[in-house]
Amino acid sequence: MSAPRVGLVGRVRAMPVFAVSPSTEPYRVARVVLIVIGVAIGVVGGVILLNDVAPKRYVGLATWLIVAVILHDVVLAPVLVAAGLAFLRVRERLRIGRLAATIVQGALVVAGVLTAIGVPGLLANRRGSANPTIATTPYLLSLVIVWGVAVVVVAVALALPRLIERRARKK
Amino acid sequence: MADLTSRMADRLEPVFARLRRTSSDPVKSTRTAVVIGRLLGAAFTICFATGVFSHVLQDYPSWIVLPRPVSLYRVTQGLHVISGIASIPLLLAKLWTVYPRLFEWPPIRSLAGVLERLSIAVLVTASLVEVAIGLLNIFQVYVFPFPFRQTHYALGWIVFGSLIVHIAVKLPLIARYWRSGARDRPRAGAVVSRRGLVGIVGVMVGAVTVTTAGQTVDLLKPFNILGPRKQNLGPQGLPVNKTAMQAGVIAVAKSPEWALEVIAGDTTRSFDLMALRALPQTTVDLPIACVEGWSQMARWKGVRMRDLLEAAGAPAESDLKVRSLQRNGVTSRMEMPAGFSADPLTLVALELNGEVLDIDHGYPARVIAPGRPGALQTKWLARIEVVS
User: Fold this and answer.
1) B297 - beta bridge partners?
2) Looking at chain B from residue 59 to 98, which residues have their Cβ under 8 Å from any Cβ of chain A?
3) H or E stretch covering A62
4) Chain B residue with minimal CA distance to A7?
5) Under 8 Å CB-to-CB from A39, ≥6 apart: which residues?
6) What UniProt keywords apply to this chain's record, in alphabetical order (chain A) (predicted)?
7) What interface predicted TM-score (ipTM) does this complex get?
8) What is the Cα–Cα distance from B305 to B322, expressed in whole angstroms?
9) How far is CA B193 from the centre of its chain?
10) Taking residues A90-98, what's their average pLDDT?
């Protein structure tokens, strides 16, 4: 009697162990060797974790691991998707060319990632340190400069093609 | 039960389909994932190799005696932090590219599929935490509820292991899309093309590198607006990992009673500052290279370790145990294999950049040896014991 192929449980029951048998695919040996090596290296990490990190720290670490993936998958990634769709609309409405759009998007994400790596500096500035040789930069000022440059790049990328177009039309 | 799960599946399927459609973009192709994945894989491999090297140097100092080139650790640890910071935009770009695959339907197809998704979950979450705590650590911002050194090391192995598993799982795809082929559509993309995207990722990597690497790469000094350290900033123009105040050694280090004990077998000899200055003085140029990824060249003057050992009646080539005035912490004690003690560049330094050592740089005397991590360049020396 075979299990019904309806519902998640039924589907899981009906699943073959390997959807596509790895033995029929190319690189079979290389893949098996790599999986064995990868698992072995991961196990070393697990052993280091169990040996060197006190059990009372596990809850904190697990929380960080779970929160990290939630922050990415549920917050950051959807925001980036939404921003991309919004930009697509703006691009169509303002009829921004491909190159200009790439430069605008590039300027924004570069400034964004610089802001992300600036966060520990901002925290360090706020908290202060007994060591006067660390985090001496006013990182807020650095980020203001970064965003200033990004805004200028965006403005130039948007304005320059129009300017050139207008000149061409006058001639 | 089957009815319930079936109804749930029927409800979820269109939701997943919609999420997948909304987050999709022709630029998020397998080819893009392979192009960015290669760069991220390279960055993670450099991080892992240099990280393990650093841990071995610090935990098993007698295993590797590599005093030349003198900047070896400066380069490996500088690379560790530079490639670690570079992996942040690469990781975000890679996750952006593969995000629609989170909503694949059915979510699991086979046992192998379950294991594959599990390995990806481990890779993603461990990578995110690994780069985040690495970045926080170089700013010495300890906002996480677990110890940095041990956790970063363990997660490093877990990230690299799950990366290799991931590569194994995707190997046929990686091979198929390794080169731009007939199926490739480099100009496809809602806003940016793939070439545009790869260009943007390149600029992101360049931007995070240029704005931080000035803490270790002399050429990039002027652009260091986001790095935690600045070259030439600190007492005697050199940054400090831990100050004398933080180490709690100011009173004992400044005491006129201070003397360096050298113990060889049954005999103990004491050298006060006068006695150390009376020994032959040598000047060397050696970098100080911190595990946190900053480094700088400096000029040190003091007594060669080999000269000091011979003055104390011990062979120049001796395995040593070195103690600091600092009571606790990893930098309070250090082991030095004979290969370093006999090296003409290894000093018990008394001066830095032409001045008497600043208290934060280890006054009255500190060790400086070629090619070793900063944590092993013991400051505020108390005792040197010959063990062989």
Assistant:
1) B287
2) 85, 88-89, 92, 95-96
3) helix A58-70
4) B6
5) B161, B165
6) Membrane, Transmembrane, Transmembrane helix
7) 0.95
8) 12
9) 34
10) 92
Beta carbons within 8 Å of B292's beta carbon, 6+ residues apart: B81, B137, B138, B140, B228, B229, B241
Burial A122-141 (b: 16+ CB within 10 A, else e): bebbeeebebbbbbbbebee
Q: What are phi and psi of B93, to 5 degrees?
A: -65, -40
Candidates A21, A34, A41, partner chain B, best to mutate (most B CBs within 10 A): A41
B287, with CB counted inside 10 A (0-12, 13-18, 19+), is: buried
Tokens coding A38: 């990868």
Task: Provide mean pLDDT across the span A62-76.
Answer: 98
CB distance B137 to B292 below 8 Å: yes
Q: Is the confidence at residue B80, as pLDDT, over 70?
A: yes
Q: What share of chain B is helix, strand, coil (3-state, %, to 5)?
A: 55, 15, 35
Using the beta-carbon criterion (under 8 Å), do B171 and A41 form an inter-chain contact?
no
Compute φ and ψ for A86, nearest 5 degrees: -65, -40
Superfamily of domain B244-386: Oxidoreductase, molybdopterin-binding domain (3.90.420.10)
Q: Which amino acid is at B124?
A: V
Q: Is the pLDDT of residue A12 over 60?
A: no
For A7: left if phi > 0, alpha if psi spans -120 to 50, otherwise beta; the answer is: left
Taking 70 as the threshold, does the pLDDT of residue B199 lie above it? yes
Closest CA–CA distance from residue B259 to any residue of chain A (Å)? 27
Q: What is the per-residue pLDDT for A21?
A: 44
Domain boundary assignment for chain B: 2-223, 244-386
B302-355 per-position pLDDT tens digit: 999 999 999 999 999 999 999 999 999 999 999 999 999 999 999 999 999 999
Half-sphere exposure (Cβ direction) of A10: Cα atoms closer than 13 Å: 16
* Beta-strand relationship, B333-336 and B260-264: unpaired
